[in-house]
Amino acid sequence: MAEVSAEARIEAPAEKVWAQLTDFTAYDQWNATHTSFPKGGPATLELGATYEENMKLMGFPAEVAWTVEEFEAGRVLGIRGKGPMGVNVGNRYTLTPDGDGTKVRIDGEFTGAAVSLMAGKLKDSATAALNESLRKLGGLVS
């Protein structure tokens, strides 16, 4: 298993950050690993919603079939997906109001046999991507 996380304070209210975070038409503007949603994002963002995403991590393309497992509008989005080579992926986005801004935390995990072969490089690459994503997200809403 490889676990990664990143956190940043964004100078915008949680409602504005959440709106950008869940605008699937604009994912390519901030999500550093996203390349496309071949069938579009989820029709309705709710528990059990499913969607497919094409991503790139460590320079390799990957298709992930996501399911929303945790959802608290404006605060928490937890998704779990199945990727190539038996790799399972989880992401949890948490927003916490902080004065005039918002603390945004992304926790991710990768499991599966292929992960153990490249756990160190995967952690480094995924952590860099999370930090870049938070920087871009902040730039869009600040």
Structure description:
This protein is an alpha+beta fold and 142 residues long. Helix content is 25%, strand content 44%. It has helices at 14-21, 113-117, 119-141, and strands at 2-10, 34-36, 50-57, 60-72, 76-82, 88-98, 101-111. Strands 1-7-6-5-4-3-2 form a seven-stranded antiparallel β-sheet. A hairpin with a 5-residue loop joins strand 5 and strand 6 (88-98). Helix 1 packs across helix 3. The radius of gyration is 14 Å and the shape is globular. It starts with a strand and ends with a helix. This is Polyketide cyclase. InterPro entries: Polyketide_cyclase/dehydratase, START-like_dom_sf.
Gist?
The chain has 142 residues and is of the alpha+beta class. Helices cover 25% and strands 44% of the residues.
Distance between the termini: 34 Å
Total discrete domains: 1
Main beta-sheet annotation: 7 strands, antiparallel
Shape: globular
Total helices: the number is 3
Q: In terms of per-residue confidence, which ranges show pLDDT below 50 for 5 or more consecutive residues?
A: none
Organism: Streptomyces lunaelactis
Protein name: Polyketide cyclase
Pfam families: Polyketide_cyc2
Explain the layout of strands and helices.
Blueprint lengths: L1 E9 L3 H8 L12 E3 L13 E8 L2 E13 L3 E7 L5 E11 L2 E11 L1 H5 L1 H23 L1
Antiparallel strand pairs: 1-7, 2-3, 3-4, 4-5, 5-6, 6-7
Helix pairs in contact: 1-3
Top keywords for this entry?
25% helix, 7-stranded antiparallel sheet, 3 helices, 142 residues, Alpha-D-Glucose-1,6-Bisphosphate, Chain A, domain 4, alpha+beta, globular
